[in-house]
Write the structure tokens for this entry.
Amino acid sequence: MQQLIIGALMAILAATSAMAQDADKMFRLAVPDILADSGLMKYMLPRFSLKTATRVALVDAGAAADATFGDTGTVAFEGLGQVWRLEVSTDADAQRFADWLQSDAGRSAVGGFMADGVAVFSTEVTEKRIVAPMRFDGDAARGAVLSLQHCGRCHVVGAVNRMKAIGSTPSFAVLRTLSNWRDRFMGFYALNPHPAFTQVAEVTLPFDQSYPSPITPVEITLDELEDILAFVAAVSPADLGAPIQSQ
């Protein structure tokens, strides 16, 4: 008998919890004025509410909300000159809205909104990424000395050894014309023929005793490599002229 009572109570609690969840089918959505004035919310939100039986209470940007349109969170759509993102709390209804917005139905609702016959928003978002130029914090002056000392026996590093390098080896100025020159210099010790005679402290393995370096080894540290990179970054790329065109 006691088990039956406990079972009945648990069933009542479960039903009460489900009713409470159903009764809560609403969340607060913060929308900036420019987005609210566009009319998108009036067009889109009724479609979400009809699909999920969830009410959306719009609040001003900055007010307490369960979800917020702005410049943080997951990318939602693009329009009015910017990319709009949706930041969502742990509220289940707000998360349901975020999922709907990424679904085919949500994307269709966004793309279907028009003003004067023209689509205002698009879910095909192309974000512009600003790539910061890579900076090397080494000592360029010291790097010039190290470049001549370690690399000058093969490469022309500048006017200082223009006639004292190997003619078949590209100069630093020519290497600077390559789009991946940074990668080449940063990992030069792994590019042939350098592994046969280069040792970078705490990076490369010692030479196999059965295959010693064929020439006096180049022995540098990562700090010295940073100095060389700072020097190379300041080298002007060679003017190789216009590309050869065949007829």
User: Anything to note?
Assistant: Confidence is low (pLDDT under 50) at residues 15-23. The radius of gyration is 32 Å.
